[in-house]
Design a protein that fits this description.
The protein has a two-stranded antiparallel ribbon. It is rod-shaped and about 105 Å long. The protein has about 100 residues and is of the alpha+beta class. The chain has a domain of about 40 residues. The chain starts with a helix and ends with a helix. Strand 1 and strand 2 form a beta hairpin.
């Protein structure tokens, strides 16, 4: 594997697996051709980022739960309407039988 392939592979891994306020420091050791990436983290930046991410996740969970509750309510309302309609139809049948 060439140094360029290693660079691209490492960058792809870092790009796909790490999402956040990371700063990357790339190093190449010229005599050996070794390549590596050092990830530099700023504590205050990460703390802010984590708080924001947790808030976003909480909002997403709340939205998902509310949408599920709304769907269940709609399904129950449909069932209730169907039962009322069936009850009204049966009541009409009984009235028509009695009136004959």
């Amino acid at each position: 594997m060439s140094v360029e392939e290693m660079k691209n592979m490492t960058k792809n891994i870092v790009d796909t697996e790490l999402h956040g306020p990371w700063l990357l420091q790339e190093k190449i050791h010229k005599p050996t051709g070794r390549y590596w990436v050092r990830i530099l983290l700023s504590g205050s930046t990460i703390e802010k980022w984590l708080k924001q991410r947790l808030n976003n996740e909480a909002l997403l969970k709340k939205y998902i739960i509310e949408s599920q509750i709304k769907k269940v309510q709609e399904d129950l309302q449909k069932d209730l309407d169907a039962i009322r309609q069936k009850e009204n139809n049966e009541t009409e049948k009984i009235k028509s039988i009695i009136s004959k």
